[in-house]
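Escalated from tier 1: iron/sulfur cluster holo job.
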Amino acid sequence: MAVFVGPDMEKDKRELLERQGYRIVGEHSAVKLCHWLKSEIAGGPGCYKETFYGIRSHRCLQMTPTADACNLNCLFCWRAQDWGTDSLIHADDPGRIIEDSIKAQRVLISGFNGNPRVSKDMFAESSSPNQVAISLTGEPTLYRRLGELIEDFHERGMTTFLVTNGTNPKMLEKLDPLPRQLYVSIVAPTEEIYRKLAFPKSGNEWRHLRETLELLPSLDTRRVIRHTLVDKWNLGFAEEYAKLDATADPDFIECKAYMFVGRSRERLLMENMPSHAAIREFSAQLADATGYGVAGEREDSRVALLTRDGALHPL
Ligand code: SF4
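Tier 2 regenerated the structure:
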């Protein structure tokens, strides 16, 4: 089953990503089976977004249109970071990216077919994803045909989660349609900590992130602020985060522990991974500072969810 693979990404980077379980699609996109898809297809639990928002992990396509492009170098990032570029020169056709991403997903799950722990129904459902997480790796707003990609996913009846580091307000402002759920990561309470933890490339990223937070209330979709918390770096500072969150007026605030996994282990220590108790304590402080309520938590993912009314609001 041929999947189009362009010449753009360096051969070494492509081979490294494929050894890590990615499938490269076109010139600059990639797919990778999520841990939680593999868990749920075989009868295990789904991811915390299934608990909080009702998506089904075994039907989730985890992909990125920017496998090799990002404008940050966050210490806590579990990916290899020798990014090819921080902007995308070539932009593949969105329809082709989706077609080939779904093909690649089917190749990746084919090994589950016939597995005694995997029912025929679960396997069949997993073969036709109805949810996409545009996250995986890189910064997706660097792909200039992102709006068309999201529109195409919607036309296929798929729900769309877009995760962005918020450094591209101009793209978000003109993004049409918007994803069903828009995630903006706020990974530091101050610019000083942001520079030390996220290693922005141009020096404008913090200002652009602030512009994105100002823009968010005007974007008519489900808005999520995610705080990825690294102990001894950006954990704490509830008052400072509350001010930033108030600017964005999000529907949801996720307080998520940094996880000591992947290539981040070359940059951080195990002790930088907060316990769930620390996440629970921080989210209670942030709830007090924002007036939001704790709506849910998942200890296995060390995450807590805040909403305006302290209740869950599934899709
Ligand atoms: S939403 Fe994210 S964590 Fe959940 S199944 Fe999809 S890729 Fe995995």
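The first strand starts at residue 23 and ends at 25.
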